Amino acid sequence: MARKHSFHGMEVNSIARSTKCFQCQIQDTEEKIVEDNKRIHTGDCYEKYKEQKQRKVIENQEWSDLYEHIKQLHNALDVPPRNIKRLRGIKLSKNISYKLILDAYKIADDKLRWFIRDVLQDSNDAEAINKAMTVMLNSGLNEAYKQEKLKEQKQKSLEAKRDEFFIVEDKETKFIKKKDENDISDFLD
Ligand SMILES: [Zn+2]
Question: From CA 11, how far away is CA 145, in angstroms rounded?
Answer without folding.
Answer: 66
